């Protein structure tokens, strides 16, 4: 089909093509090489070229087979990327490969390379529309969005093999489930069950929704003691080819591994990814605030930070309170922000979604990256943005008749950030300390590390994190620094991915003896007696915070009013579960998932009491 379109339309052959793709076309008659990628860069395509030839691959490591390709991490360009440092700026930086001498074909672009003289011509075949539709009402936007979203999901849910779905319990993946369930009989969904997803409610909402929709839900357990081995982490970094590898990427990689082991015929995974970036998903989260004006104020702050990065001299003026200088030249900061999100998804979101899935022989399918959906939200006029783009209202209203209100109105929760962040960060700290700081020492010994990294400062900072009971964002920044060193090391002597062990596949709650789809009564009967396991303590401090410790190590922190805390404070090893619930005034459904996790981790045990 693509060859036919190219012959008919030349470089306009992708104008009406939808979906995800990366292509290489050799036009022998014209002596041209045609390279192209889809509008969002979902599918990767990299190349290295010199005066004599060009080498291409869908993986960076594939280019290293060619001796002419440099095998070096690009420290300078990587450290200059604001995204890597989590800088709160509005930047539309071009995607970088992280490696010297290697480029990626830009999204929504056709590269035409003349093989006779080596000249390269760029043809941009898609741009996000800029002109607002002033005459369209909010209701019309919502109806259009609902129609296109359903069409996109159904297209993504079409396959001649089994598909699964990552279900977080948030509005994005839940919307995909609601629209896809009718087409996919016997659909299996997969949810991360960790300390963080217990605290933020994701695991419980995912389980509840799956039960309501009548689909299977596998709660994949990441216990408080779980830490990947240094070898497994090196494998993850080498698979994904990015220093951005962190908890989110790790959890998704492990979910894919579990899904493929549990369902060997599964070949595709539906995702709710990339909805936030274009639907106003971060409008409530950037710098706090409770309305659209607060969000715009956050964007002004980010724009100022961007200008100070570009023009350091402005820092002195603004530091003295001299607010005489305008920010960016455009009056539409929100549009500039969306453009920066478009750049971000290419460098981070679709980059890791494709690789973590492909690592298990699975194809990631992303319904929210149908360009028709993005075009709808792009042309919403300023007067309707507070109505439709504050906290993803356009999506919530588009699926309000398809999902229970409990899900539609649920506040957005990041994959692992929030009140449960320290669970993920503790894993990273323990990982970096493992095997006498193996990963840190490898990173410091890597080519180029001595020029850019301060080993003493890194070791000191890691010591400050202790055993990891912290939610300091510096943990993830330090992990990225270590990842850069690991990539520099592996680029020099590329290992075979199959030679690096990924470790054991995670287990599900059901595999640990908890039937995920059983009725509550069969899990924790009222007559059973709960007790804290040996070595487990529930303690409080003078400020009123509560901690669950195992062998002297803090594993969970509970805030006042937490229903699980209410139950645990009445657990004494003698009182029946039914009486504990009555004394605490808590409904069993509120704490079911938390208690399941504690039982899987053997922090809470149930014994048979008197009937």
From TrEMBL:
The keyword Ligase applies. This is asparagine synthase (glutamine-hydrolyzing). Keywords: Amino-acid biosynthesis, Asparagine biosynthesis, Ligase. Transmembrane segments: none annotated. One of its GO terms (biological process) is asparagine biosynthetic process. It comes from the Bacteria. Pathway: Amino-acid biosynthesis; L-asparagine biosynthesis; L-asparagine from L-aspartate (L-Gln route): step 1/1. Residues 1-116 form the Glutamine amidotransferase type-2 domain. It is an enzyme of class 6 (ligase). GO terms for molecular function: asparagine synthase (glutamine-hydrolyzing) activity. Signal peptide: none annotated. GO terms for cellular component: cytosol.
């Amino acid at each position: 089909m693509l060859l036919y379109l190219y012959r008919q339309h030349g470089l306009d052959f992708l104008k009406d093509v939808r979906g995800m793709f990366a292509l290489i076309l050799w036009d022998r008659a014209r002596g041209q090489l045609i390279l192209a990628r889809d509008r969002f860069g979902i599918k990767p395509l990299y190349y290295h070229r010199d005066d004599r030839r060009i080498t291409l691959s869908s993986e960076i490591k594939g280019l290293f087979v060619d001796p002419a390709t440099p095998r070096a991490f690009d420290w300078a360009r990587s450290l200059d990327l604001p995204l890597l440092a989590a800088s709160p700026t509005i930047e539309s930086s071009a995607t970088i490969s992280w490696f010297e001498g290697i480029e990626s074909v830009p999204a929504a672009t056709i590269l035409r390379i003349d093989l006779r003289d080596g000249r390269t011509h760029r043809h941009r075949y898609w741009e996000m529309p800029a002109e607002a539709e002033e005459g369209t009402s909010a209701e019309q936007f919502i109806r259009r969005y609902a129609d296109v979203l359903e069409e996109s999901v159904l297209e993504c849910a079409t396959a001649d093999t089994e598909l699964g779905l990552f279900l977080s319990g948030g509005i994005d993946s839940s919307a995909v489930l609601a629209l896809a369930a009718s087409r996919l009989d016997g659909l299996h969904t997969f949810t991360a069950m960790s300390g963080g997803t217990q605290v933020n409610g994701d695991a419980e909402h995912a389980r509840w929704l799956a039960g309501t929709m009548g689909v299977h839900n596998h709660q994949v357990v990441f216990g408080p003691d779980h830490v990947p081995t240094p070898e497994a982490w090196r494998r993850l970094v080498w698979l994904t080819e990015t220093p951005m590898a962190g908890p989110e990427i790790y959890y998704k990689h492990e979910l894919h591994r579990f899904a493929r082991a549990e369902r060997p015929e599964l070949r595709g995974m539906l995702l709710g990814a990339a909805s936030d970036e274009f639907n106003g998903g971060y409008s409530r989260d950037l710098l706090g605030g409770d309305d659209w004006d607060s969000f715009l104020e956050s964007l002004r702050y980010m724009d100022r930070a961007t200008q100070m990065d570009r023009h350091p001299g402005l820092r002195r003026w603004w530091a003295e309170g001299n607010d005489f200088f305008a920010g960016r030249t455009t009056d539409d900061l929100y549009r500039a922000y969306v453009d920066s999100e478009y750049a971000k998804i290419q460098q981070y979101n679709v980059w890791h979604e494709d690789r973590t899935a492909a690592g298990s022989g699975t194809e990631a399918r992303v319904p929210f990256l149908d360009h028709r959906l993005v075009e709808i939200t792009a042309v919403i006029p300023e007067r309707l943005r507070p109505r439709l783009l504050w906290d993803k209202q356009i999506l919530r209203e588009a699926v309000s008749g398809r999902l229970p209100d409990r899900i539609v109105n649920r506040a957005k929760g990041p994959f692992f950030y929030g009140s449960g962040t320290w669970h993920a960060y503790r894993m990273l700290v323990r990982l970096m300390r493992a095997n006498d700081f193996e990963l840190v020492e490898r990173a410091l010994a890597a080519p180029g590390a001595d020029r850019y990294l301060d080993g003493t400062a890194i070791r000191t900072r890691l010591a400050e994190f202790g055993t990891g009971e912290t939610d300091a964002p510096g943990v993830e920044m330090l992990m990225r620094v270590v990842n850069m060193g690991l990539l520099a090391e592996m680029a020099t002597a590329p290992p075979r991915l199959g030679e690096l062990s990924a470790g054991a596949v995670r287990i599900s709650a059901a595999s640990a003896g908890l039937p995920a789809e059983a009725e509550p009564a069969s899990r924790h009967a009222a007559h059973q007696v709960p007790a804290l396991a040996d070595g487990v303590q529930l303690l409080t401090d003078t400020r009123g915070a509560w901690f669950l410790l195992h062998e002297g190590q803090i594993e969970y922190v509970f805030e006042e009013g937490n229903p699980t805390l209410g139950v645990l404070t009445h657990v004494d090893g003698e009182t029946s579960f039914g009486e504990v619930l009555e004394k605490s005034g808590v409904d069993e459904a509120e704490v079911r998932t938390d208690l399941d996790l504690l039982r899987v981790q053997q922090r809470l045990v149930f014994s048979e009491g008197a009937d």
